[in-house]
């Protein structure tokens, strides 16, 4: 499926656990899923869905290896649909300085991005909460330090998740999930099917029909 045919709004109506459950029923299975490892958290915004535009940065030490931020802006504008900007902080100990703050955030907001993900840190927190896009990062930091982008449009690894330019990402308060583009169209229906199955159990557990003996008699394996 072409990226332009993906129904982002339909995916955004689901949370990451539901889409992960749905992916289990595809060839991806339980082992073929790729998602952030919990070392980053959502600091602002709601659900993100979009195509990855990637970059790398460094901040701890000075260097002559910078590329213009305009390269990132151009890459964002080259994607027809919603974009998730993914920035890998390459420093051995990431987080010395922030790429994302009020100014870079406002520019990316003006370009209409859906989300931002980094293994590094961000700043100007109060401003970021009003940007209208989701921010996932390892945390906050004070300084800019020697922050510069060192590459745009390269494969990156952020919070254990490998991301290539063009990958489809979905994220919420649980983390960020990479969705194989060829499986995207089928996921909402699978998620709905699973929710129905799960809600049957939940509804029973909350009902007057429920009894501990009844539960044991079912000898349930999964839930
Ligand atoms: O200094 C930077 O580039 C990061 C920052 O605080 C901002 O974008 O406002
Ligand atoms: Mg700032």
TrEMBL record:
It comes from the Bacteria. It catalyses: 4-hydroxy-4-methyl-2-oxoglutarate = 2 pyruvate; oxaloacetate + H(+) = pyruvate + CO2. Keywords: Magnesium, Metal-binding. It is an enzyme of class 4 (lyase). The keyword Secreted does not apply. GO terms for molecular function: 4-hydroxy-4-methyl-2-oxoglutarate aldolase activity; metal ion binding; oxaloacetate decarboxylase activity. It holds the Pfam family RraA-like. Substrate binds at residue 123. Mg(2+) binds at residue 124. Its EC number is 4.1.1.112, 4.1.3.17. Coiled coil: none annotated. Homotrimer. Catalyzes the aldol cleavage of 4-hydroxy-4-methyl-2-oxoglutarate (HMG) into 2 molecules of pyruvate. Also contains a secondary oxaloacetate (OAA) decarboxylase activity due to the common pyruvate enolate transition state formed following C-C bond cleavage in the retro-aldol and decarboxylation reactions. Belongs to the class II aldolase/RraA-like family. This is Putative 4-hydroxy-4-methyl-2-oxoglutarate aldolase.
